Amino acid sequence: MSERTGMIRLAAIRDEPLSVGEVVDAVAGTGFGGIAVFLGTVRDHDGGRAVVGLDYSAHPHAEAELRRVMGEVGSDSPGVALAAVHRVGALAVGDIAVAVAAAAAHREAAFAAGRALIDRLKAEVPLWKRQHFVDGEPEWVGAPD
Questions:
Q1: Is the pTM of this model over 0.90?
Q2: Tens of pLDDT along 64-94?
Q3: Is 34 within 8 Å of 103 (Cβ atoms)?
Q4: Which residues pair with 130 in a beta bridge?
Q5: What DSSP string describes the chain?
Q6: What is the Cβ-side half-sphere exposure of residue 74, based on CA atoms within 13 angstroms?
Q7: In this structure, are residues 25 and 63 in contact, taking their beta carbons and an 8 Å threshold?
Q8: Mean per-residue pLDDT of the chain
Q9: Is the Cα torsion angle 58, 62, 111, 35 positive or negative in sign?
Q10: Hey, CA dihedral for 109, 115, 61, 52, is it positive or negative?
């Protein structure tokens, strides 16, 4: 597949720390003038409560769903290269939970595809987090009822 056609360059769900360089390198190419990157990190608060860490869990088919979403975003974004990696397991405040990159000939297309990818990943890929608060009460976010 040529650099100018929409493509998935990297799609993964991992239990190890994520590399920003890996997602950028995955989409880099001489035909691309813009690379848009989004990093989701673990923040130290949520809903007015102090967060000390969290655990991400994934459905066994989560990576296949990630690839499906990326394929659809790629179909809507011709000429864009895509990369997305989401972490599972225990994460500390400040850790990178998700890294997404989109590369295109021009910045507008890279920004649009990157935004569509992270929004759809968060909405459609079956990943759930359990936040741990200073007060000791955990809370599930995004888990099915």
A1: yes
A2: 999 999 999 999 999 999 999 999 999 999 9
A3: yes
A4: 55, 140
A5: --TTS-EEEEEEEESS---HHHHHHHH--TT-SEEEEEEEE--SEETTEEEEEEEEEE-TTHHHHHHHHHHHHHHHSTT-EEEEEEE-EEEETT-EEEEEEEEESSHHHHHHHHHHHHHHHHHHS-EEEEEEETTS--EEES---
A6: 22
A7: no
A8: 93
A9: positive
A10: positive
Distances in whole angstroms, Cα of residue 69 to Cα of each of 82, 84, 95, 116, 125: 11, 10, 24, 10, 8
- The token duo for 37 is 């990157």
What is the CB neighbour count within 10 angstroms for residue 27? 27
Query: How far is residue 144's CA from residue 76's CA, in Å, rounded to a whole number?
Result: 28
In whole angstroms, give the CA distance from residue 15 to residue 49: 26
Closest CA to 80 of 122, 121, 120, 31: 31
How far is C-alpha 68 from the chain's CA centre?
14
User: What are the structure tokens assigned to 75, written together?
Assistant: 């179909």
How far, in whole angstroms, is CA 74 from its chain's centroid? 15
